Amino acid sequence: MTLFESTVNIARPVSEVYQFLNNLNNHQQLMPESIQDWRSTADEASFTIKNMAKLALVVESRIENSVISIVAADTPPFEIKLQWLLAQEAEYTSVQFTIAAELNMMMKMLASGPLQKLADHETQTLGTILG
Q1: Model pTM?
Q2: What is the block-wise mean pLDDT of the chain (131 residues), using blocks of 10 residues?
Q3: Mind telling me which InterPro entries this protein's record contains (predicted)?
């Protein structure tokens, strides 16, 4: 698995950050402009990455105020898992977002840049929305 990680510190209680991330309807706000045809419920989301692929995601597991794990709901072009790790620090919540993808050498060359940009974009946008 290839990992793409991004972190942000948010000056809010961990429970508020968890409540936002716990609902996949809110994740549309975190996505870049290249995401189209967004459809979601609290537990599932599907969308198209402009000029690339269609993805369907589902929440695999939750640990309140700590972890949200999201996996592909159908057969994606490659195995992918998204995970949000939350930790309450003294005056802020530490948020780590990880995209784990099973990429062959060709896919790694094509997808590594966009996947890292996606991870960074989502955490930066989360910090802007909740910051």
Answers
A1: 0.93
A2: 96 97 97 93 91 86 98 84 96 97 90 92 97 82
A3: START-like_dom_sf
